[in-house]
Amino acid sequence: MDWRTESPELWAFLEALRPGEVLTGTVAAIERFGVFVALDEGPDHPLFPGVGFVTVPELSWRHADAPADVVTAGQRVACEFLQFDTYNAEARLSLRALRPDPFQAFADRTTAGRELRGTVEKVLPFGALVDLGDGITGLVPFRDSPDRPEDFGTGEEVSVVVAHVDRPARRVLLSGPRHAG
User: Fold this and answer.
1) Which of 45, 64, 107, 137 has its C-alpha lying 20 to 30 A from 166's C-alpha?
2) Domain boundary residue among 36, 69, 98?
3) CB neighbours (10 Å) of residue 135?
């Protein structure tokens, strides 16, 4: 479909948007792959429930099993415009861009050597994932470490030590466990 000729008003609206612009609207539909947003400004979309679309990773800084865990149909939202998706003629949006990143706050207050308490989320062949709270998960790697899979039980509360916080990769490496009574 050639959106320029089929819906020139929509095309002109989307072309005028600039990255970083804040748009408001209403959650029009929730799908497993993301959320459609009916924008307050601009035309309706001829095929989709909204001109705006938020992919699952852009909904929240925290992991969500489903988009409905983050938003509800009919909810008012403010989003940052990321880009014009010319194939679908929609505005790609981000909800999380307008919210503080909990990982950066964690990194600001956490240094190597600090002891933290957390809950073992999952034990994998290469390491254990420990939920440190506020959506932050750290990894206790088993390679080159005295830690072993049998040292961890899913759901168990443990004390761990921060080995390294990698801001660009958004990773926390830990050592441990010390079982928290």
Assistant:
1) 64
2) 98
3) 15
What DSSP letter does each residue of 27-72 carry, written as one string? EEEEETTEEEEEESSSPPPSSSS-SEEEEGGGT-SS--SSGGGT--
User: CA angle at residue 141 from 135 to 145, to 5 degrees?
Assistant: 145
Domain holding 38, by residue range, is 3-98
Question: From the first residue on, what is the mean pLDDT of each consecutive set of 10 residues in the chain (181 residues)?
Answer: 90 96 97 96 92 96 90 98 96 96 93 94 92 92 80 90 94 78 50
Asked if 83 and 53 touch (Cβ cutoff 8 Å), the reply is no
Do 124 and 148 reside in the same domain of the chain?
yes
- Show which of 45, 74, 98 is a domain's final residue: 98
What is the number of structural domains in the chain?
Answer: 2
Contact yes or no for 31/85 (Cβ under 8 A): no
